[in-house]
Fold this protein.
Amino acid sequence: MTGGGALDAPVHEPPTTKEGWAAFVGQQPSRVELLPPAGLAALDAAGRDAYEQARLAHHARLIVVATPDGRPDRQDWPPVDGAQQRHRHRSRGLVVTGDSGTGKSTAIKQLGKHHELLARRRRAAGGPFLPVVYVTVPPAATPKVLAAEFARFLGLPLPPNLNQVNITNAVCDVLCRLGTDLVLVDEIHNLNLATRGGAESSDQFA
């Protein structure tokens, strides 16, 4: 723990919505002052309780450490910015694999955050801008369910009579208008390619 400063307000929206993603991108590491023994002894009961609660909240947030494997600027991550300039009409992809609990979700979210902050710094034009989208694949996802996840991230209404093509077209239209150039899809192992729905959902990414 270093320096003084207030803890950030808790983020209530999940990063699988545009509001939650924006909160994640803007989130700064919490900071709490580590008091010396004399300063700790000078606190009254209420002050001591507030101090301990701040320390517990700080440690509960588990600060992300930029290890060599997870750094968003490592050389074997996709060169998103260069690809955007050289291949405007061709998508590029990367699959992140590893054992459970090794930080795959953390790594791709840090990549997305790094890219979005860079894209926003470089953007000269005004208006709505959404360079990064982050969704997760639900278990047994069908193409319509997967398209609905993108619509949910964007906050698009989903009337019951909309089919998968309608939803996909609406999502693609919004992503194009908002300048999205990086799509992060988590939990992709939930796509079961042995089933028709899983295979069709996988094809939807092509």
Summary: Confidence is low (pLDDT under 50) at residues 1-10, 82-87.
